Structures
1.
Amino acid sequence: MSVEQIIDALKPVGGGIDVSKALAALSSHGFPARKSERWKYTRSEPFATFAAASLSSDSAHSTDTDAILRDWKSETDASAIAVFVGGVFDDQRSNLPDGIAIQAIDVAPSIGSESDAADALVWLNTAAANGRYQISAENIVEPTLHCLHLPAGEYSLAQTRIHLTIAPEARLSVVDHVLDGGVSASMQTLITTADIGREAQLDHVRLQHAAAAGLVYTRFDADIASAAICRTLTLDSGGSLVRNDLNLRLNADCAEAHLNGIYLANDRQHIDNHTQVDHVSPNTISRENYRGILRDRSRSVFNGKVLVHEGADGTDSAQSNATLLLSDHAEIDTKPELEIYADDVKCAHGATVGQLDQTSLFYLQSRGIDRAMATQLLTYAFCREIISDISDDEVRRLADSAIAAEIPNFTGLEAIA
Amino acid sequence: MLDIESLHASVGGTEILKGLNLAVNAGEVHAIMGPNGSGKSTLANVLAGRDDYSVTSGSVAFHGKDLLDLEPEERARAGLFLAFQYPVEIPGVNNTYLLRAALNAVREARGEPELSAVEFMKIAREKMKSMQMDPGFLNRGVNEGFSGGEKKRNEVFQMSVLEPSLCVLDETDSGLDIDALKIVAEGVNALRDPSRAFVMVTHYQRLLDYIEPDFVHVLAGGRIIRSGDKSLALELEARGYDWVLEEAAA
């Protein structure tokens, strides 16, 4: 039994009260079953099995971090870099922006439930994070901080917990790069919590390109104060099984959340995005736009919950999810979920699933563009809209390349509008 | 240049073109007129190779080649251009990129060398000026956020850059105010050339005040039921279509 193996492996390690609580929860509730509403379309067993196997064996550190970093740096002019190997921050190889420190902490802010198995991967991370860190932005931080997350070796489990504190009126832009680290199989869990102060801004981008047989669990929870803005972009192209939980709470007047996502899957990849926006206070704004392209036998899940709390009048929320199915065997399960307990709110939502627009295809062909290229251009353009307003040029370019890399033989990067 | 013989075509199982014949020579301007639903747009789309339309019988020769055997992109490279009735907005694909890729594809087919970005921009800017278009359009997505009139102008602009030998205009005048119509007509007239032919599908005679046709054909019930010179268009304007339909039925 995977859960018992995990507990057996972790118990001797010990830790603070949060670790004991997490282990107790894991021990009594285990991993979510199919009947768990939040895990209806995604299997949790592979995570449990992998974690059990990895935790009960000594996996050798095999990643050639320097070579990977050299390759990565040669493709970008990003200058502020934080390197995490096997979940542990590597100060020596990092170059942090002015005014930013990454400090190890003993206990991370707790999130999720203590009794709902849907949060089992949070418990696993809490119980056995390789590293827990606090990053604070006291004012406007420049440039963008690129965090590179590498597995330590083949079949290894890397778990990181990061808490971001953005002081009032401060600004921080973080890009998490979840990389394969040259291994074919690994499991990575990356949990980020954020406190965004009054009139502060946090831009959080995650470019996930984990190992082809990689398991990825990410969670991002943010508390957003008055007139503060949180923008997220989740772009998944790697991994075989990926689950992202995103929870944003608009806690005070005029707080704003912008949630963007792109999922690009082929073969038998499975990518699940569960998002929840809580409009706790009046006059809060949320905009959500997720788009995906599914090929082969890939599968994706989108669940977008918008919860408008009692008294949160003047809430303005819009959500959209669109998926291109480029194969007869690909599948998307998409579900908007609106719960509204206030009057005078604007909540729009829409989901579309389809193929490429035939008229657009014909239009391009009628201008001499061959069908294969026209197909690539339209596929690319479909996702392009999501990232076109990223303000950091280098981040946008990296996101662009990540999309282009998923379109076979695509050579049309100059086609960007 | 273009020889259409006994063309039958259907959309979704309904036969629209029922034995259409038309011959177009280099240097000529042909106007195809007719009541709504007569098959005018079907003809334009069939020529360009849209796959919602299936040709059930008949033949179309273009520069001596079997046009119906070619993919839409091959038709474009062979010198055929369709100005769309409803040009498509394609956010995310850059106007400049599309046009340069299109021009280079056509040039390659003509055995001409590829144009550099700089050479291309010089041509594009010049032609934009004559179409009185905002150069800012070049950096936007294809037709993205363009008004109806801007889209039509963009079609004629593309046509002027690509220099096709056969221009097929599908209701290019629809949705244009008089100023835009004049600009579009001037763009078309500037392209008139002894080596180039035009097939203009239009519902109204108005366009023909600005672009003078050599031949006017009335398309009804999927066939050309009457052909004449530009005076036929004036007569249609004055008397409507009923008399032609009645005479054809008699």
2.
Amino acid sequence: MRRLWQIVLRYLGLLRLFIHSSLLASLEYRANFAGALFISLLDALWAVGGALLFYTHRDTIGGWRFHEALIVIGMFFIASGFVDAVMQPNVRDVIEAVRSGTMDYTLLRPVNAMFHATLRRFRFEKLSSLLVGAALIGYALAQLRLWPGLERWLVFSLLGLAAVALLYALMAALAALCFWVVDVANVDELVLGVLEVARFPAQAFPEPLRGVISFILPIAFISTAPAEALLGRLTPSLAICGVAFAAVALWLSAWAWRRAVASYTSASS
Amino acid sequence: MRALRAYPALLHAYWERAVTYRAVFVVALLNAAFPLVMMAIWIGMAQEGPIAGYTAADFAGYYLSAVLVRRATGAGIVQDIERLVRTGELSVYLIRPLGVIHHFFARVLANRPMAALLPAILASLAALLIPGQQFDLRLPNLLLFGLACGVGLVLEFLMQYLVAGLSFWVVQTQGVSAAYQFVRAFLGGYIVPLALFPPALSEVLIWLPFQASVALPVELLTGRLDLAQGALRLGVGMAWTGLVALGAQVVWRSGLRSYTAVGA
């Protein structure tokens, strides 16, 4: 138990170092922060504008009112901000490292390869989507005159974390894939494309798509489930389902990384 | 005139390049994700009854055509030109006897078949599989559609050429370019059919340049416009093309004068 605690502390310390060095690098290009915020705001304007157009023709869509759907959109921005800031730069780096053979240097270090390769670099300016998402959720709650109790915020945070874990697992698994198929550049775009579905509540989609995104590809757990938790609509079984999905996905991606590293032959030697 | 004679060779060269790097076009197709998500939601809503004259099948027809037309009339040159100006590589193009604009236009033209091929196959498959879609495939309409695609492509190219020209003064034009892309996609019928905006707004939108590149060809193909309406909006598109061409020329002429070629 003591040993496990030491390992966790060591990895948290490493993570702090990675974050610190990325932050220093991001601060070198301060204008990028303003640029990224501008693009996030434009994107939000687009998403909210699209939703507004839907609601000029119907009062509720799939049982969601406009301001309720705004919470889902806000959650989508938080999720995509995480993907842009954390996952995309690292996946790009992994692909490049495997192709050129510099992955050797990562594998030689006395650190878990998946941890080091996927959490090494952060693009802080892309966190602007997080701000925009939080602002959207705050605005929607104020318009709904809804002040969720503590337990709803807890479930919301738990499911938000599960969503982040799910996305992390997905991107890490894709990065592992490039150990076998080297020329899969831009696989990250594939995830971003699929993630677009999380922009709106899962119930707004017609069957069979709704079933697919709720259970087969668990995209509904990225934005719809946390929003439902905040609105107090989520059943306990679904909440457990979301956490379980995330845990299984994390375990699968760790397994894929072990297999990938084992089959790595290095391009340079 | 001399420029025209260079086109066969230019087109051939850029076509070879497009064929070599064809994987790029498959990935670029993923940009179609957002309109297809919008399509799915409209289809879900339309199951309770048509929305502003659009049934579920109409939405499928509209968005599939929009993805196709968007690829056929898209350009995507801002980033490249911005990079050339920033690094000073533009000088290489400037000393060639042929204007810079011709190199980029030839490249855009040569890329179109490759870019449109995959969506065209997918859209025709879907059109065969999903029943009840309305396409107007009579010859005069198809001719007008082809003409509208041509005008849409030239307008879109000139717009991007104009935006790219700003990089002579602003070092990072990505913000301007992103803003332009957002506005064009949203107000140009790629994300939402213009008829679904509030009526007062859609009346205005058909007079803007953004409608010419996606909304107009798609509405022609899906048979939503009669010849007179189609011709009027094509005229609007042509008028804007002339204006934008003039603006681009002014921007590039004064831009090149102030260009100092980094690294030269």
3.
Amino acid sequence: MNVKTHAEAAQEFILNEPRTDWHDETLWFVRQKRDKAVNTVAEWEILRDWASKIKNHTLSNLDHYLKSFEENAIANGIIVHWALNAEEHNQIIHKIITDNEVKKIVKSKSMLTEECHLNEYLQKKGINILDTDLGEYIVQLRQETPSHIVLPAIHLKRQDVSQTFHEHLNTEKGNYNPEYLAESARIHLRKHFIEADLAITGVNFAIAESGGFVVCTNEGNADMGVHSAKIHIACMGIEKLIPKISHLGVFLRLLARSATGQPITTYSSHFSRPRSGQQMHVIIVDNGRSRQLGRPDFRNSLKCIRCAACFNTCPVYRRSGGHSYHSTVAGPIGSILNPNLDMKANSDLPFASTLCGSCSNVCPVKINIHEQLWKWRQTIAVNGYVDKSKKTGMQIMAWILSDPKVYRISGKIGRWVMRTLPFMVNNRLNVWYKQREMPEAPGKSFRDWIKENK
Amino acid sequence: MIMGSRETILQAIALNKPDLAELPEVDISITSHYNDVVRQFGAMIEAAGGSVFNMNSIQTLLNEISAIKEDGKFVINLFGDSDIDQLKGLNAENLEELDTCYLLAQLGVAENGALWVSEKQMFNRLIPFICQHLVIVLNPKNIVSNMHEAYNQINAASDGFGVFIAGPSKTADIEQNLVIGAHGARSLRVCLMDLVDS
Amino acid sequence: MKVGLFVPCYIDQFYPNVAVATYQLLKKLGCEVSYPMNQTCCGQPMANSGFSNLTKGCDINFVKNFKAFDYVVAPSGSCVLHIKEHLKEGAKPAELEKVRQSVYELSEFLIDVLDLNSLEAYFPHKVGLHVSCHGQRGLSLSSMSELVAPEFSKPEQLLRMVDGLELLKPDRIDECCGFGGTFCVFEEAVSVKMGKDRIKEHRANGVEFITGGDTSCLMHLEGILKRQGNDIKTIHLAEILNSVR
């Protein structure tokens, strides 16, 4: 299957310029809300530093903390599973479903389950999962993937949602009122929560010292599901761990402010033990994370707490949309995580950036995203995943630019051609020339000038 | 012998992890504090779409509860005389028509309007989420400045479940338009009451 | 003060006036300015495209030309940042480190080393400030809108010393222009869209000129402005600071 590169997909996205402007402005607004919120916390930069160091420490002792977490969770009556990869994660969930004759399943937002393509896996076996996060619910009805890990339907306008709800929920055609649409979803989904026998959630933070975990939502959909259902499955990547409960003070102060500009999500639910009579499962998933841990240049991308602040600030993401990244996790963080999963398929992503560095500045756990983007480019080139023509071009450039005489002659010739034979350069083969004029080609270089003016 | 996934994962991590990095010292004394925590707390609840009001005596609240019950609404009062065993036994179907829930919060956080409610206070985990309207009673003396102080005071893992609730449920998933009342409670009223015996 | 003038390759070839202005300005301010005649390029175009393993020749040439100077000044944030972060061949580690430490972008040199607080300069125009990313976030030439930190800006400080100049800032004070090196052709659509959006904000301010510390940004914006038939001109910071009555 031919997957478009980021550049190709972005080009298509931008063809609709008004829509691109709308997408860009909507996400920039989220960035502005973030700025307002973080500036109310005088010690914000210190919080980031603490969070970064706590995560660095945890990653450097991850096996120990995972074992502690497991031991404490089991002692509290939680059933702990380990999944090497996406397939195993899906199989584990499938087995729980069949073992317990589960009929109805609800899921609150979990990017990990998206990464593992859980819904498709179960669908092939005739089992349906209902996504209850409103944004996820909307894209599920539309048979699309989320374009943003926190705001899944950010690429859609209210007219799109209205049309989808009209088709699937029989809401009034042409009624675009967000309150009306959200209310319709509330009423429709309420029944599903009540009837569900299995609720699947993600994990925002897992705590080693207690064996418990925290799930953050604004909608209350995670809680509506898990407190009704007789089985709760929580899915977590190995990197979601933090050592102590008190560390939640740091992370919960950073997460929502970075993600949406709220001081905290409406609900921060702390799970330590299943309720009486309930089965609670935690699935610990690797799926390439331990491999990333072994990459010195890229391992601290695992500090990510999935806030998407980097998406909102990225001028490229805002103008290309999440689907251009052909991956579950898009944006700047996706561009440093995904090449680890499949370097060839994701070799375009680290180049979908101007390396402006804004992402690294908004990252609450101080991942040096823009530096890792640069480093991934080197790794991808060394592994041979850069276009042959690009590589040849670079080799020629390197030769020209490292020899002073060759450089001077090439420069002189180039400028002469631009002045006397402009059509050779100003044509459709010149990508720059598509939407920009070429710079003027002066008769003398600076070196020529200084020779005459010394 | 084929290694199980657990062993494979742990071994890979042991092999790949970097040298031990130190845990930082989280010095709470440098974190933001508010002179008027009650005022800040109230402002944050209101900014989140909730409301705050003062009440002098618990009797006023009990009167309100009686009045709503008389209207025929399904109400649960979790800090009054509640039949705990009966409450614990209520399932989702039983609670579908729950209109209003009254409960007590252990602590409030000024920086974000969050209220800590643990299983001890709610008896039945579903109740605070499935109700249409939520009224939380809090002693203003139990409001702290920030989350670090909050975690110092509560024992977040002592009960099987606990939650910080910081407003009515909401969503902005439709074109970033804020809608109050998603799947959880449509409204949150916080009643500040200096309880003699909380 | 002996200064080695480092002129980025594209300035040498396409915008020599920027280098002329830098040269004249530094001399005016009392520096003894030398221009090593065999300099070429810092190697950034290759490195940013994934081919830092092809920059050995550029590194060696750079060190050869500049190792004798305690101060190397360039009118470019991105080239200076590249040298500081990625110069790795051409001499022993200690010597390389010395070269990396000796390189300065123009505005940081004027403010931090020459300690400039006044300037005999005149530029009676409405000027929009474009903040170039690598200089700002890489070299800390100015504060960054993402961080909770005190505001400052070395380029702005310098521009405020210029008589008659009315400085206007766009709404998004430090969003990237979209040049990004080879990004400008390999992701042409996004690159141009980003540039157009910057221009829209400057146009809304009614500026006559857009200035900044990096000619790469200005070249990209100028290309779009000319194609649009727009009157706004681009001009490098050095050229403004070197303007007199």
